[in-house]
What does this fold into?
Amino acid sequence: MIGMGKTPSLVETTNYQEPPVIKVELDLSPEDQHFRESVRGFIRDAFTPELQQAAARQAGVFAEPSLGREWQRRLHAHGWGAPGWPKRWGGAEFTPIQRYLFSVECAAAGTPVVAGMGLLMCGPVLMRFGTPEQQERLLPRIPSMEDYWCQGFSEPGAGSDLSALRCRAERIGEEYVINGSKIWTTHAHAANWIFMLVRTSSEGKRKEGITFLLSPMDAPGITVRPIASMSGEHEVNEVFFDNVRVPVSLRVGEEGQGWDIAQFLLMNERGGTSAAAALKNALHRTRRIAWRERDERGRRAIENDDFQRRLAAIEIEIAAVEATELRTLICGGLSGAAGMASASIQKLKVSTTLQRLAEMAVEALGPASMRDYRAQLYCGGPDDGMAHRETAVARHLNVRAATIFGGASEIQKGIVARSALGI
It folds into this structure.
């Protein structure tokens, strides 16, 4: 902590000038320049002050379901609910550069981060592996948020090692009967559909007995139990399956093909958008807190030479993340082992950088970071004008899981090592 003692006083920020940042720019065509301006114009109109205030108070990875739904519906009404999807399924069919620009502008503006379990995960899986009937029934309802999806992968004994999952699905006639549980299931309490990996065979290699199934969340036998985060928000849940019956028509791909489908899905989860813009936003927030707060001796963290050096080092790393994103974009992306390794490297760097920025924001708060802000942030407590303190502490606690969710750092390092060694 910088400074200890009484709670720091709040100072005016009207004279604060954001320092120049490292920029990595694309040489855009006139058409792409026009597209970027149209995105900025849409955000100015649709991202109202009320939505801005609500988005600024989000501590989790994704916006709370009600806020995410509202923003997604505005995007969908404008025709931008699914930027990279084909138009036949309600998508905008943006080019790769347009998708990147759209992601950058939304992140830079701080718009709500809509949970991507439907748009970025299940949707692409259905387009690639789903039957025509599944596609016709399910895809059009994802961009509109008529259906809200959650992901049933992790289990109490199978998190990073998904091949160890034990949730069982036994085929009886034209149905699968599911028994077991899933854990850390984001927004299961708000979702009406779940896609999941289940074990349909114990023969042969563990990966060969996994199948990809879909189920409505109101199916008899499904129970959702909330898990409260230490930062106060309700993001994740445990989901129990007690003789849940799912028709075979809701199996995606062939029985035993679940592992291959999951690898395809994880490539979409770990890539395809701009993380650098979100990191820049976090950098700006940390700088403003470091300017705004004073310790008991009247000192600002931003005036500390060591603090500034550490922020500068992080800014350089963000520029490297951005350059890597642009290089991948220009090269048309990577596939196979090289694509998995590239996505893993980015995931490692983004998650650790987010954690460092969150730590520095709390450090800049000093003793004020030791207060319990959960009542103000989640229980309708009084607005004491300290929202930047409340969210900084909650984000710091929430982002501790960034090196675990989406694939633990140890697993990502293994993927990179195997790619480098050619094994």
Summary: The chain has three domains: 23-114, 133-258, 270-421.
